[in-house]
Amino acid sequence: MRIFTRAIWFLLFILLLAFAASNTETATLRFWFGFAWEAPLVLILLAFFAAGALLGIGSALGTMLGQRRGIVRLRREVRAKAVPHEPPAAPPPAGG
Question: Could you give the 3-state DSSP secondary structure of residue 69?
């Protein structure tokens, strides 16, 4: 299974490398106030992909950290409410 996974990753790498090699033309992004950025198209795509990934991770991070804090709080509550098991009391002596 590990060989199959590595083969898929290698194939994906080759496909992305071929995509990058075929998109080396210079592209111009025009922003407000006359600012423009000229760079190879593949570099622009990579920059926007990385920015999107970072924004996605950042937006999910707050929720994830909040859930972890909630889990820790609930575990503390469960431990506080748990009653330790005591051995059963010895039966009273028979007879009188």
Answer: helix
